Amino acid sequence: xxxxGPLIVLVLVLVVxxxxxGHLLGRSAGFGPGKGPGKLRQVSAIxxxxxxxxxxxxxxxxxxxxxxxSVRADxxxxxxxxxxxxxxxxxxxxxxAAADEIRQHGNPAGDDVVVxxxxxxxxxxxxxxxxxxxxxxxxxxxxxVWRLDLKALADANRRNLKWTDIQGNTAHRVARNVLVATTxxxxxxxxxxxxxxxxxxxxxxxxxxxxxxxxxxxxxxTSEEPFESYLRSGRxxxxxxxxxxxxxxxxxxxxxxxxxxxxxxxxxxxxxxxTIVPLTQAGVEIAKLLATDHDLQRLAAKHGFRTADATLTxxxxxxxxxxxxxxxxxxxxxxxxxxxxxQHTLLAKLEERMS
Length: 355
What we know:
Layout: H1 4-28, E1 41-48, H2 52-56, H3 58-66, E2 69-76, E3 90-92, H4 96-105, E4 113-125, H5 126-134, E5 138-140, E6 146-149, H6 150-158, H7 189-201, H8 206-214, H9 224-233, E7 241-244, H10 245-254, E8 261-267, E9 271-278, H11 281-292, H12 294-302, H13 310-317, H14 340-354
Parallel strand pairs: 1-2, 1-3, 6-8
Antiparallel strand pairs: 3-9, 4-7, 4-8, 4-9, 5-6
Helix pairs in contact: 6-8, 8-14
C-alpha cells in the first residue's frame, strides 16, 4: 500500500508525457486545434462542373487536409449559382462576370479571388478541322495552333452551310448546319462567354448570334455534359463542342487522347478567370489557400488550368499535342472579361429571342 502513491505519480507523469509528445507530433504533421484526422474543418462549395475533377482528386484532398480543411464541392452551371448559394461557404464560377452576378444577388464575406484561368476552346477531330480549313472557317496560325474564325462561321451559318456542302467531304456526311455545340447561355458561363465572342465577331448582329444557338436544338446546362458526350460518342454526338481548354488538357494528360481528338481556339479569343466568391469567413480563408498554395496550384495545372505561375503550367501543356497541333503558350489579343451589366443585357436579349 505504501507504494501506491509513487505508482500513481509515475502513471500521471507518463500520461502527461504522452500527451505532450502526441501534441508535438501532431504539430509536426501539420495538425493542431481543429485539424488532423477527424478534426478537419468542413466547408461546402458550389463550383462550375469543369472543376469537379479537380475537387475530386485525392491529391487535392490530401493537400487540403494537411491545412486542416475538407471541401465538399457540388457542381452547377455558373449562371445557375446566384440563386443557389444558401448554405455554401463559397461559390466558384468560371468567370469574373459570373462572380459579379453572384455578388449582386448575395451577401459575400470578402473580396473575390481569381484562382486560375482557362480560355474557351472547341474540342473537335482532325478530319473535321481539315473540313473547316477547306471551307475557309479554320486555319493554323504561325505557331501551328488551330484557329476557328467566328465571323466566318456566323456568315456560313447565315447561308445554312451544311457539312455535306463542303467540297470533298467524305469524313462527316451529315446534312446538318456547321456550328459549335454549346450549353445554354442562360445556365452556363461557357455558352454565355461564347455569346459575348459571337457578338463581338458579328459586330453586334443579335440575329446571327441567336441562330448559332437555336440551330442546335436542345442543349445541356453545364459545360461538363457536352464534353462527356464528345468523349463518349465522338462525332456521332457533335463534330465541334465548346469547352474550356482545361477540360481537354485534363483529359489528355490524365486519360489520354484517342480517335483523332484535337483542339481549336476561337478567334476572337476569351480567357475565363475562374473566381471564388467567399460567402463565409471560412470561404475567405479557403479562397486564399486555393489561390496561393503551391501544391494546390500545381494540381490545378495538372487538371489543365492556367495558373499565375507559368512554370507550373508549362510541363503539363508541353505533354499535349492534339492532332499534332501545339497548345498556345499564351492567349494574345483576347477579348476582356465582359462587364456584368453589359453581359446581362446581351444575355437577356438573347434569351428573349431564343424563348
